[in-house]
Amino acid sequence: MYKYALLSKSLSAVRSPLAGLLRFESISTKIKLRNCSFPARTLTQTLCLHTHTQNLSSYHPTQSQQREMKYVLVTGGVVSGLGKGVTASSIGVVLKACGLRVTSIKIDPYLNTDAGTMSPFEHGEVFVLDDGGEVDLDLGNYERFLDVTLTKDNNITTGKIFQSVIEKERRGDYLGKTVQVVPHITDAIKDWIESVSAIPVDGKDGPADVCVIELGGTVGDIESMPFIEALRQLSFSVGQDNFCLIHVSLIPVLGVVGEQKTKPTQHSVRELRALGLTPHLLACRSAQPLLENTKEKLSQFCHVPAANILNIHDVPNIWHVPLLLRNQNAHDAILKQLNLLSIAMPPALQDWTMMAETYDNLTNSVRIAMVGKYVGLTDSYLSVVKALLHACIACSLKPLIDWIAASDLEEDSAESTPEAHAAAWETLKNASCILIPGGFGDRGVRGMILASKYARENNIPYLGICLGMQIAVIEFARSVLGLERADSNEFDTNTPDPVVIFMPEGSRTHMGSTMRLGSRRTLFQTPDCITAKLYVICLLVPSFISKWSHPVSEE
């Protein structure tokens, strides 16, 4: 069933606490420290976990399992931030609804080996996979939309490719040859794509039928040139029946003229074709539906059939995007290009349609205060927001999230920015519940402690995730236990009462790949300890929305 359950893969670390608070639901003993890469360092300081992961990158299908893979490449043009990730995920949803097995790969052309050390202000949240991989947030969209479990190898970066090629060169694998971008870098990219696409991600045996590849950035970026060349070679080697290129572009409307302009897309397609790739479909982003004459002009100048020009205009929620593609017969065009019409079924999206329409028809809402460090970019907490959305829909409510900068709640803010301070506290006090997500560093910690104290003293439902959970521990130790200097070793290395400590394997000098991440099992050395009892209590926690909130009509 798609309804509610499919998309609830937003954040396994968030989902279980939310389910206990937002909806009476059983708890699994399996804790997934996912989608909290920035707060994961702090969360892992407090838990002693046992590694229980499987390295799927070592999977190699037998000869009987190997089959001809079909590739769908999604590229972007004109500007970044058009929604290539949602488009790629939606394409996967429609193909999966046709009875095909789908996997996904995200290519990020930056030199970082992974997203673990990148600021959330630049790229949004870091999505953490079951195998501990710290990846781009688009892989979170893939998992939520497609209900799959991806691996860290499903996120390809320039740093990973260069690192693997240099390691081979140092081992002498190239037998003294001059190592060059072509063929060595491009071959490494092709080999990576072909090997990762064969890894099953849906819990079934054997590789998927279709691999959806999203190329990050925009066509023409110097960083993506090796990937463009590798994908051009891949399209030639696998054959045209096994490769479909969908180009996502922008159709702007100038305010003065009021006309849908196709020239940016024409230039973008021309640049793509100059690099050796010709799009089979165009996915045009616009505020309003495309006019017929706009489609005709795009078809004429971009050499794409009018039937293959898809319009992804603004919709009430992103769950409508797969329905938009279905209604425009995008699946038929893709299946025809991939020669899969004979084995595919008509897309069955009844449950998905019901889910999208259910959200549109909700009238009551609940106000949730999100007190964080990175509220300037809401994508910094994308999976937390998605988890709240899914939980609230299960309770027939729309979430109204009020973003509060933690530093605005601090006493110093009352003197430096009194208006922001007053507004932050007014927003906090008007909320039905409070959520503090994760983060690194001590900025805003005092404001978070004040928010946690307010929630405890006023019996306001409170959910602390990673750093937010530690904040609750520190506040309780100070206010209730009388340990005035109780703190985390991360914030105060000299505190006499370290209620939160570093995990022994955590590095204090290196930040990349030094934290405990991924899907793990918690092993209690003492079965009747307080922590073990808390898991039982979570089973009995009533819904904090239905019991504590006061639904209000949007009218």
TrEMBL record:
<keyword id="KW-0547">Nucleotide-binding</keyword>
<dbReference type="InterPro" id="IPR017926">
    <property type="entry name" value="GATASE"/>
</dbReference>
<comment type="similarity">
    <text>Belongs to the CTP synthase family.</text>
</comment>
<dbReference type="InterPro" id="IPR033828">
    <property type="entry name" value="GATase1_CTP_Synthase"/>
</dbReference>
<dbReference type="GO" id="GO:0019856">
    <property type="term" value="P:pyrimidine nucleobase biosynthetic process"/>
</dbReference>
<feature type="domain" description="CTP synthase N-terminal">
    <location>
        <begin position="70"/>
        <end position="340"/>
    </location>
</feature>
<comment type="function">
    <text>Catalyzes the ATP-dependent amination of UTP to CTP with either L-glutamine or ammonia as the source of nitrogen.</text>
</comment>
<keyword id="KW-0067">ATP-binding</keyword>
<dbReference type="GO" id="GO:0005524">
    <property type="term" value="F:ATP binding"/>
</dbReference>
<keyword id="KW-0315">Glutamine amidotransferase</keyword>
<dbReference type="InterPro" id="IPR029062">
    <property type="entry name" value="Class_I_gatase-like"/>
</dbReference>
<feature type="domain" description="Glutamine amidotransferase">
    <location>
        <begin position="377"/>
        <end position="532"/>
    </location>
</feature>
<dbReference type="Pfam" id="PF00117">
    <property type="entry name" value="GATase"/>
</dbReference>
<dbReference type="Pfam" id="PF06418">
    <property type="entry name" value="CTP_synth_N"/>
</dbReference>
<comment type="pathway">
    <text>Pyrimidine metabolism; CTP biosynthesis via de novo pathway; CTP from UDP: step 2/2.</text>
</comment>
<dbReference type="GO" id="GO:0044210">
    <property type="term" value="P:'de novo' CTP biosynthetic process"/>
</dbReference>
<protein>
    <recommendedName>
        <fullName>CTP synthase</fullName>
        <ecNumber>6.3.4.2</ecNumber>
    </recommendedName>
</protein>
<dbReference type="InterPro" id="IPR017456">
    <property type="entry name" value="CTP_synthase_N"/>
</dbReference>
<dbReference type="GO" id="GO:0003883">
    <property type="term" value="F:CTP synthase activity"/>
</dbReference>
<dbReference type="InterPro" id="IPR027417">
    <property type="entry name" value="P-loop_NTPase"/>
</dbReference>
<dbReference type="InterPro" id="IPR004468">
    <property type="entry name" value="CTP_synthase"/>
</dbReference>
<keyword id="KW-0436">Ligase</keyword>
<dbReference type="GO" id="GO:0042802">
    <property type="term" value="F:identical protein binding"/>
</dbReference>
<keyword id="KW-0665">Pyrimidine biosynthesis</keyword>
